[in-house]
């Protein structure tokens, strides 16, 4: 009886390994698809320095994506965009994390200021805000600062804080005067009882000629009247600011003041010394 048991045990030993190997082969077949599925990219993936978003089918997202209550934009290659973008003729601003600025108000990004309307669209052109006027670049939405728009020195100027200049403004050590529409003044300006003169928007000082007449403007820009000594020579400015001279007629060159008579040459300089009147000395 003992001898008969040995062949039976040996047969059993030969069968068991064969079944065990078959089970392993089946297990490998079942595991393999799971391994391939785990390698498929989904969700946010950073490749190099660029972020992508893969949908549930493993495809790269393009265009707009809403995720976690924020909006993101991906170009045609699936790259997440940051900064200023244009979509359907509207500008939008995306932060360094790619999220769109969507709340209404001012936003500073990259050292520049932008104005965002509710929903994310950026302001371009003129903006009225809290009683002041601002200008946002039509090309990139950035607020203009220390810059002109319109014809140089005769249009509008925007200050360092972005607001449009109104009234007296010092620009590059030159004085300008802007009216209530922000346009710089040219020609004569009457301001608080004094007259000023502007050329190319800039306030003038010293001698100027206008419409054939000479005027003198003080260092503060105000028009001079009365006696003026300039470089050692005396002149006289009439009440309307015109320089007294005999250039047009001899009679215009006379001034009677304090019981004395003064005579001014064609260039406005006061005569000194002996002179002849009517050809008789």
From TrEMBL:
The keyword Magnesium does not apply. PROSITE patterns: CW. SUPFAM superfamilies: Cell wall binding repeat. It comes from the Bacteria. InterPro entries: Cell_wall/Cho-bd_repeat. Coiled coil: none annotated. Keywords: Repeat. Cell wall-binding repeats lie at residues 41-60, 61-80, 165-184, 204-223, 224-243. This is Glucan-binding protein. The lineage of its organism: Bacteria, Bacillati, Bacillota, Bacilli, Bacillales.
């Amino acid at each position: 009886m003992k001898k008969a048991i040995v062949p039976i045990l040996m047969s059993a030993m030969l069968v068991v390994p064969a079944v065990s190997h078959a089970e392993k082969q089946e297990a490998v077949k079942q595991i393999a698809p799971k391994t391939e599925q785990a390698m498929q990219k989904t969700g946010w993936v950073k490749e190099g320095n660029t972020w992508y978003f893969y949908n549930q089918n493993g495809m790269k997202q393009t265009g707009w994506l809403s995720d976690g209550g924020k909006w993101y934009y991906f170009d045609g290659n699936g790259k997440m965009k940051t900064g200023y973008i244009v979509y359907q003729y509207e500008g939008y601003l995306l932060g360094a994390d790619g999220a769109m600025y969507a709340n209404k108000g001012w936003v500073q990004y990259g050292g520049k200021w932008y104005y965002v309307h509710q929903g994310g669209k950026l302001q371009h052109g003129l903006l009225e805000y809290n009683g002041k006027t601002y200008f946002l670049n039509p090309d990139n939405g950035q607020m203009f600062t220390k810059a002109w728009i319109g014809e140089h020195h005769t249009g509008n100027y925007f200050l360092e804080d972005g607001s449009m200049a109104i009234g007296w403004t010092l620009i590059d050590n030159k004085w300008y005067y802007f009216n209530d529409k922000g346009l710089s003044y040219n020609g004569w300006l009457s301001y608080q009882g004094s007259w000023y003169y502007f050329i190319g928007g800039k306030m003038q000082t010293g001698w100027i000629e206008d419409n054939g007449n000479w005027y003198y403007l003080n260092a503060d820009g105000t028009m001079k009247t009365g006696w003026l000594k300039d470089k050692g020579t005396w002149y006289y400015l009439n009440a309307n600011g015109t320089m007294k001279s005999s250039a047009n007629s001899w009679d215009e060159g006379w001034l009677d003041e304090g019981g004395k008579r003064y005579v001014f040459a064609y260039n406005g300089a006061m005569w000194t010394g002996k002179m002849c009147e009517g050809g008789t000395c």
